[in-house]
Amino acid sequence: MRILVGDDQLDVLEAMRLLLKGAGHRAVTVDSPNALLAAARAENFDLILMDLNYARDTTSGQEGLDLLANLQAQHNAAPIVVMTAWGSIDLAVEAMRRGAVDFVQKPWDNARLLATIDKQVGNVRQARTELEIARNVQQKLFPRSSPSLHGIFYAGRCAPARDISGDYYDFIDLGGSGLGFVVADVSGKGIPAALLMANLQGCLRSQLEREHSDPADMLRSVNRLLHDSTAPEHFATLFFGEYNNDTHRVRYVNCGHLPPMLLRAGGDVELLEPTATVLGAFAVWRCEVGEVTFAPGDLLVLYSDGITEAGIESGQEFGEARLMSILKQARSDEPERIIDKVMSAVREYGPGVQGDDMTVVVVVRQPVAAS
Fold first, then answer.
1. Would you tell me how many other CB atoms lie within 10 Å of the CB of residue 317?
2. 10-residue mean pLDDT series, the chain (371 residues)
3. What are the residue ranges spanned by the domains of the chain?
4. Does domain 141-365 have CATH number 3.50.30.40?
5. pTM recorded for the entire structure
C-alpha cells in the first residue's frame, strides 16, 4: 500500500518509513502541511498518516485540524490517520469529525500502529471491491446504443474523477423523428452521488415512457419523485432537450445547469440559459420551455462543471471562453473527436489530478452539401 506520511520531524519520518517498509508498505514522506496537500493533490494514496502539530512549540492540533479541512476541500479520497504527542479525547473526537478515520498518540507502539494501518488497509480493499461493483453497474446505466436519426450526429462521454460519477448523460428514442438528450450533475461525491444519479435516471426514463407532449410536465413529475425520495440537501442540475427531425427544432428545459453552447453555422453563439431551478430541492417547482431552431451545420454542446471549473483549485479555472475557442476550432470534426479535443485540453490545463467529473455531449446537424 502507498502511504503518505506527514510530520515536521525528520527522525520521525525516517522511523515511520523504515517501519512501514518492513511491513511491506511504501511510504512517501513530507515535512509540512503545504507539502502534504501538494502530494495528496498530485498522487493517489491508499492512506494518509499525518501529525496534528507542525510549528515549533504548538500543542493545540489546530494546524492538523485545518489540514484535514483542506484535504476535504480538495476531495481527498484516502483514509486519514492522525497522530500527535499531545493527544486528548477532545482532540481525537474533533479530528474524527473533520474526516480522520483513526487516532494514534506519540510515542507510538509499533504493533498497535501497524494494526491500525492494517485495519484501514482492509477497509480500503473492501471499499475498492464495492466501488468496482458500483462502477460496473453505473457504466451500464450510460447509453450503450443510441437511436439513429437521419442528418443528426451525436456522441457523449463521462470521465469520472473517481471510480464512480455523479454526472449523467443519456440519449433517448422519443419515437418517430424525435431524439431526447440529457446531461445532469447531482450534488455530492462518491457512492451517494452515484445512487442519486441512478435514481434520477430511473425517474426520467420512467416518465419518458409515458405519453407526454410537454417537457415541463415530464420534469415536474421527475422533480416530485426526486423530492419525495431524497433528503432536502440532495438535488440535481439537468438539461433536457428534445429534437424533432420534422420541424428541425429543439425544445428544452434547463434546470439550473450550465447553459449549453449552440454554435450556429454562420458563426454566432447562443447560450441556452436556465429556464427552471434545480431538481429535487423544492416541492413546488416551476419552469418554462425554451425552443430554438437547429439548422444545418449547427453544433450543440452540453457539458458539466468539471469542464469549465477545471483548475479552480489553483485560482484560474478553464472557463467558458477557452471551451468556446476549442469548439470553434473543432466544429468540423466528428462529435467523438470534438469530445476528445475538449477533454484533452481540460486535462492539459488542470493541475494533474482531475478534481471533478467531466461530461460532454455533442449534437451536430449535418451541413447542407455544396452543389
1. 17
2. 91 93 93 92 89 69 86 84 74 82 86 88 68 59 70 91 78 87 85 77 79 81 88 88 95 97 96 96 93 97 94 82 96 95 89 76 84 44
3. 2-135, 141-365
4. no
5. 0.67
